[in-house]
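Reviewers asked in the last cycle whether our approach scales beyond single polypeptides. To address this, we selected a multi-component target totalling 774 residues and predicted its structure end to end. The input consisted of the following lines:
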Amino acid sequence: MVSKDCVAMILAGGQGSRLGALTKNVAKPAVPFGGKYRIIDFPLSNCVHSGIDTVGVLTQYQPLELNTYLGTGKPWDLDRSHGGAYVLPPYQSAKAEEWYKGTANAIYQNLGFLEGFNPRNVLILSGDHIYKMNYREMLRAHISSGAAATIAVMPVPWEEASRFGIMNVDDDGVIVEFEEKPAQPKSNLASMGIYIFDYKALKKYLEDDERSPESDNDFGKNIIPTMLKNGEKMMSYKFEGYWKDVGTIQSLWEANMDLIDTPPRFDINDRRWPIYSRSLALAPHYVGYGAKITRSTVTEGCTICGEVDHSVLFGGVSIGEGSVIKDSVILPGASVGNNVTIEKAVIGGEAVIEDGAKIGVTETDDNPYASKYCTHGIVLIEGGAVVAANMDVPKGSMIERE
Amino acid sequence: MRRDTMGVILTSEDRIPPITDIRANAALPIAGRYRIIDFVLSNMANAGLTNVGIVTESNYSSLMDHVKSGKPWDLDRKNDGLSVLPPSLEQTVLGTIKGNIDMLAGIRDYLMRSPQTYVILSLGNFIYNIDFSDVVQAHIDNQSDVTIVYKDVKGYEDAELSRFTLLDFDDDGKVKDIEVQPYYPKTTNASMELYVMDKALLESIIDECSARGDRDFVKDALVKKMLGIRIFGYKYEGYMDKIDSMRSYYKNNMAFLNGDVRKELFNPANPVYTKTKDQSPTKYGDSAVVEHSFVSDGCTIEGTVINCVLSRGVVIKKGAVVKNSIIMQDSVICEDVDLEHVVFDKEVYITKGRKLIGQESYPLAIAKGSKI
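The resulting structure, written as structure tokens, was:
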């Protein structure tokens, strides 16, 4: 049987509840990002550029849009005869029917899938991070060290270290201790949720973990600590580059803003490492008379007649005359009328902002639309929602679809 | 869904130097991210045709690279699908192709083994957005032998009209006269070089014409047969033009700056597909000034762009001013360059401070890869 040197498994089942109305109907990995992408395009494109041609995508929460988006995997060159992209939902079997109980359990339930490719190593990824990374280099380091598992880590500012899973490593990069969100961090190397396991070791630990009734079946909480306790060789792999968890409205907004400075903090216009996505087949964008676009990215299908500054516009967005858009992210197909002002907002796909509306301008302590998801004054308009003409939507609001 | 119809796209012999030096006319970039052939090809795909053959002339590598397996048009099929048919030298006299009958004779085997009843014969250098299922239905309902799609281009000057094949009809809508590019036009019914016919009739026309040494499908076959067979017109009302000169190339690119033209040609009910390039969105810098322009993905704009069509990956640096121009893929315009009425092929590089000015009636065209 042909053996794959590495099969990737992307954990894409999470709800991403902190993204509020953005993930009401779609799983977090399917959330649009960066003008023409979805979050999952990043790990998928990384896989393809790293020469990994077999990718399982584990879905659970609201999978319809994500499944449709992935299709046969063609946009990522993952429609292959042996390998390719597979959507792996939870399933019923003769013995049991179960949802994915945790990250480790999700992989455990798909050991049958992995077995079919006879892989020597398995790369575990999560579907909610924005970064460009060559997994092939990490795999090489993993193989040459002979470790049972290799975990990608990146240095984070010390003051933030207690928000992460922290790896304490020796001088050779061998992991000696793992602490989940330590109050007194001993290191600033945070786990990025990217693991390469030797397949045989992974299988053994997943099967053991499944037999333990008190386990949460989670990689961070159970599998990694157990392997460390048993004295398995665990290596760290240091990544230095842009990496962002876009789990909240604020971090998603920030990550979009990171694309538009000159030079950008995160460069997606990289010919050597392009991010692939499913194209909407829209015409080039049209910029009208009287339009003004600065410090922004604009993509196909847009029609811009107003002023756009420091913003990210997705496909098919239209901006009417006299409107001013600042520091905002406008998702696919949203329609902004004339004389609208939008500041620091995330406008959902197909939302309609009628003439004269004012979004994210007014500050008030008594805001009926205030939402715990919308921190730092960011406004979120749910996809498909309508903001009526001349409506004033204060900072920090979340407007849901009726 | 017209599973009973196949499509044949002939590439045109109209040359537009320097931009057709390296590619077939049908493969010319247009409207930023498209090639001319995308319009007819997408129309065929949208009508449910699953068997489309592109008959090429000698310069076909760029066209083949563009259409590849036909995936963007969903024409990568288990049965039929997209076929690129390079010229067959055996079918031509002394190795050169002298007319479209020669091109069609070269694909006789392909036509004969295709299982469809009807065929749409088209030319790859027209732009329009038409519902082919309607045209084929009209052809069947009229019990026509040949249906020619045309547009009444009232108001065109004679010189403009003379670019087209012109049709005249009798009271029943039957074609009673055909004149190919006449100097003194008698009608304003411009043929779109789009023919629907029974495949069997096309096969017999090709056979007869090539046996007699005839070269031209319209002049030798249709004109001579006009009275013996039923040729009907199908009137098309939307935007249409033929790209046969630098002037029409320039004019038809600029036409996309008009909202009504965009609405017609990019009708969401009949979308136009093209090969995707996975470019990131276009980036506007803090000194960008862009007005009345059609901009593709992957551009980086820091200068001034007014009244232009930009293809994918164009770079306009600070201080550069580009007006009334068409800039193709990956061209770079450096700082303080001044451009007006230019047509740049791909990968043209203009160094700092240069000034290039063409005229609307005679745009300045620069060949692929030039550095100035």
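The two ends of chain A are 55 Å apart (CA to CA). We regard this as preliminary and will revisit it once experimental data from Aim 1 are available.
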